[in-house]
Specification:
The protein is of the alpha+beta class. The chain is 63% helix and 9% strand. A 4-stranded antiparallel sheet has the order 2-5-4-3.
Length: 320
C-alpha cells in the first residue's frame, strides 16, 4: 500500500511530556489488551479439562479415551467444540462493523464502555454455564467486547487537494506500532490520508500518548495482550487441579476481573482531545484537555494540526 513521500516531520516541535494523568488513563484502557489475550488463551486450557469435556462435549471426551492411537487433532474434531472456540472471533468480526460507527459518532469512551460491559456479561455467562447454549452465548458476548474494544478496520487510501500554508511536507498526525498505523501526510497541494479506523482502545492510546512516545504506548497494548495469554495459561494450570470438577468455571469467570477494571475505569476516563475536536465540541474544552494531557500550556502547534487533520478527514466520503 503506497503513500506519498515524507520529507520531514514536525512531531518534534510539539511540547509534551508523559504525565501521570496520561499513564493512568492508558493503563486503564490497556486492560482491554489483557482481556483480549486472556480470552485467546483460556479456551485451549478449559477444552482439555476432563470435567469441562464431560459436561459439554462428552463425545469428544469419549473419543479421547477410547481411541488412543489417533492424533489429538482428530480427537478434537467436533463441530460443536469448534463453534465454542470460533464464536468469539466470528462475533468480534461482525461487531467491528458496528463498533466503527459508534466510535466515530460518540467517541472512544462509549466504545470502551460497551466493550467492557460485553466482556463482563460474557464472563458471567461462561462461568455460570450449565448448557452449551449459555457457553456459546457467553463466548459470543466476549467476541462483541473484542470487536468494540480491540479490533481494527482498514479504510481506503484517499487523496485530497488542499492549499496549505507551509511549503514543505509535514506529518500532521500519525501513530505507529507493530500492528497499527493511522496517519495523515500533507505536502504542498495534496493530502494523503492512510486511515486505519481503530476501535476504541488502540485509538485511545494513540491519541493520548505524546507523538514521540506513541509507538511505545501502542506496544504497551501488545504487551498487555501477551500478559493476558500468559495469565490465562497459568490460571488454567492451577484450576485444572481443583477437586470437584468446577475449576473451569473459575477460568472462564476470571475474565470478569480485568473487564471490571476496564468497565469501571471507562466511566472515569477522559475523552481524548482529538475526539472532542472530531465531535465539534467547544474548542476551548478540547484545548484545555490537550493542555492537561500534555502537561503544558503551549500546545498551539499540535492543536492547530489536530484541527486541520480533522477537517481533512471529513473529506473521506466512501471508506470501505
Amino acid at each position: 500500500m503506497a503513500v506519498g513521500p515524507v520529507a520531514g516531520s514536525e512531531s518534534g516541535k510539539y511540547n509534551a511530556r508523559i504525565t501521570s494523568f496520561v499513564v493512568l488513563s492508558c493503563m486503564v484502557a490497556a486492560t482491554g489488551g489483557i482481556i483480549f489475550g486472556y480470552d485467546i488463551g483460556i479456551s485451549g486450557g478449559v477444552t482439555s479439562m476432563k470435567p469441562f469435556l464431560l459436561k459439554f462435549f462428552p463425545d469428544v471426551y469419549n473419543k479421547r479415551i477410547k481411541d488412543t492411537k489417533i492424533s489429538n487433532y482428530c480427537k478434537f474434531d467436533s463441530q460443536l467444540l469448534t463453534s465454542f472456540t470460533s464464536s468469539l472471533y466470528i462475533a468480534g468480526l461482525i461487531a467491528t462493523f458496528f463498533a466503527s460507527p459508534v466510535t466515530r459518532a460518540f467517541g472512544r469512551k462509549p466504545s470502551i464502555l460497551i466493550g467492557g460491559v460485553a466482556f463482563l456479561a460474557g464472563a458471567a455467562l461462561g462461568g455460570a454455564a450449565y448448557n452449551i447454549y449459555m457457553l456459546i452465548v457467553g463466548r459470543v458476548l466476549l467476541g462483541v467486547g473484542v470487536g468494540f474494544a480491540n479490533q481494527l478496520k482498514l479504510y481506503e487510501l484517499k487523496r485530497a487537494k488542499s492549499e496549505l500554508s507551509r511549503a514543505r511536507t509535514r506529518l500532521v498526525y500519525s501513530s505507529f506500532s507493530l500492528s497499527n498505523f493511522t496517519g495523515l501526510l500533507a505536502s504542498n497541494n495534496h493530502i494523503f490520508i492512510l486511515s486505519y479506523d481503530h476501535q476504541s482502545v488502540p485509538l485511545y492510546l494513540s491519541e493520548m500518548a505524546p507523538s514521540r512516545y506513541r509507538g511505545a504506548f501502542n506496544m504497551g497494548f501488545q504487551f498487555c495482550v501477551g500478559v493476558g495469554v500468559l495469565s490465562a495459561n497459568l490460571l488454567n494450570y492451577g484450576t485444572q487441579k481443583i477437586n470437584g470438577g468446577w475449576g473451569w468455571r473459575i477460568s472462564l469467570a476470571m475474565a470478569a476481573f480485568p473487564a471490571s477494571i476496564l468497565t469501571i475505569g471507562a466511566l472515569f476516563l477522559p475523552e481524548t482531545p482529538n475526539s472532542l475536536i472530531q465531535h465539534n465540541a467547544d474548542p476551548n474544552t478540547a484545548k484545555k484537555m490537550l493542555q492537561k494531557v500534555r502537561g503544558t500550556d503551549d500546545v498551539h502547534a499540535e492543536f492547530d494540526d489536530l484541527v486541520a487533520a480533522n477537517e481533512t478527514s471529513k473529506t473521506i466520503k466512501h471508506p470501505f
